[in-house]
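ARCHIVE CARD
CATEGORY: sequence design from structure
SOURCE FIELD: tokenized fold
FIELD CONTENT:
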């Protein structure tokens, strides 16, 4: 299909899912962990983390490099390794042949990549700087610069699957993954590509980043061996977020393209919305007005009504101000409608630029399986959070509507909301 022929917006569907998270490698590990109410937050080991005021994080429990060939892994930073693993799973889950576009008989020029990242992998630049100071310029690897750029995950996914249509990177703080999915929806709607791998990949659990977040007094601490997660979204005793890493990727596809090849369709990627708080470099607007605008725009873009919403996958990082602002925005937009809300950062920590990708995967699975995962860590709900927060155990998804909203908000006032529609 030519770009000129794509005058009318096309319907976009989700046909594949991939994830690497603190709960394990693969979508199956993610979904089982969410339904079981487990968390993947661990104490950070290693001399480089000694002396930090906070040493807990949501880290992937295996070395991703060990799941790739040595030749491939050595040219990727950790975020790119996570992204390639998630992309391979999503590609195969969509029914394409392992190896990429050539093996699948798909035109590589009609496939795109759209991934979100804040920094990607900050450790590469830090390591290069350390070698420079300790051993001189000859000790700095020529791979330092190409492995430092946030776009490395998107470029490596395109290389790995031989995707030539486009490889895009979105950097909008913690809204990056969700915005990357939204941009991919539009690229398919208007005929730029027929298929896109979209989501986020991030690996910023590094000493300097941990120290910086701790200096901001933004990090929660606690015993990760406890059944109660240190990350406690919407809870009365919440005390901040837990830093994390991972990757979550969707395969998005023009509906006619998916049906022509007999693909399994999870749901429709119905719409998305953006806004900006224009309030503060780090703190959210306490009124939640920017968040509410993004929510309304996502509903409008999806052609939906408030009455159609059956579930919200909340951003809810477990910071005092952020959770209150989001709750206020949801009340303002939903009015008197009560829908089950869940927040996954108690399970995973905050995966930064990858959070929106992983949480979109979970939102798709919620629609597909008809189950809403519980909010781990939220023992006693804050009295000021007037929402139906799912706690304790998973709950059946209501049947009186068809839209799920997945929220992502970031430092600097970046707000992004994804709307997914259940297929009848």
């Amino acid at each position: 299909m030519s770009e000129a022929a794509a005058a009318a917006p096309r319907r976009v569907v989700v046909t594949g899912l991939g994830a690497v998270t603190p709960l394990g490698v693969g979508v199956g590990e993610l979904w089982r962990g969410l339904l079981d109410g487990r968390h993947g937050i661990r104490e950070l080991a290693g001399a480089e983390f000694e002396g930090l005021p906070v040493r807990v994080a949501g880290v992937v429990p295996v070395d991703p490099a060990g799941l790739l060939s040595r030749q491939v892994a050595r040219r990727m930073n950790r975020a790119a390794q996570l992204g390639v693993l998630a992309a391979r799973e999503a590609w195969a889950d969509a029914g394409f042949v392992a190896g990429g576009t050539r093996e699948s008989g798909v035109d590589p020029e009609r496939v795109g990549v759209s991934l979100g990242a804040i920094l990607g992998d900050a450790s590469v630049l830090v390591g290069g700087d350390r070698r420079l100071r300790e051993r001189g310029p000859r000790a700095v690897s020529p791979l330092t610069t190409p492995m430092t750029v946030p776009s490395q995950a998107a470029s490596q996914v395109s290389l790995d699957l031989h995707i030539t249509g486009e490889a895009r990177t979105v950097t909008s703080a913690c809204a990056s993954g969700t915005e990357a999915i939204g941009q991919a929806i539009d690229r398919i709607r208007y005929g730029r590509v027929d298929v896109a791998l979209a989501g986020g990949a991030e690996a910023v659990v590094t000493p300097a980043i941990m120290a910086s977040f701790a200096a901001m007094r933004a990090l929660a601490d606690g015993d990760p061996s406890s059944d109660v997660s240190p990350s406690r979204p919407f809870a009365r005793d919440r005390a901040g977020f837990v830093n994390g890493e991972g990757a979550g990727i969707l395969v998005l596809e023009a509906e006619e393209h998916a049906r022509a090849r007999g693909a399994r369709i999870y749901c429709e990627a119905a719409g998305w919305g953006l806004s900006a708080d224009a309030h503060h470099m780090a703190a959210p607007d306490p009124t939640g007005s920017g968040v509410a605008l993004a929510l309304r725009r996502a509903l409008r873009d999806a052609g939906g009504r408030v009455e159609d919403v059956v579930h919200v996958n909340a951003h809810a990082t477990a910071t005092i101000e952020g959770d209150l602002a989001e709750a206020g925005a949801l009340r303002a937009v939903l009015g008197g409608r009560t829908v089950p809300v869940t927040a996954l950062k108690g399970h995973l920590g905050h995966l930064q630029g990858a959070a929106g990708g992983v949480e979109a995967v979970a939102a798709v699975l919620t629609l597909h399986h008809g189950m809403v995962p519980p909010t781990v860590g939220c023992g006693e709900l804050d009295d000021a959070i007037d929402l139906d927060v799912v706690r304790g155990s998973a709950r059946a998804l209501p049947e009186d509507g068809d839209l799920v909203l997945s929220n992502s908000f970031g430092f600097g006032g970046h707000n992004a909301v994804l709307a997914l529609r259940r297929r009848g």
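CARD ANNOTATION: The CA atoms of residues 65 and 73 lie 5 Å apart. Confidence is low (pLDDT under 50) at residues 1-6.
SHELF: design records, drawer C
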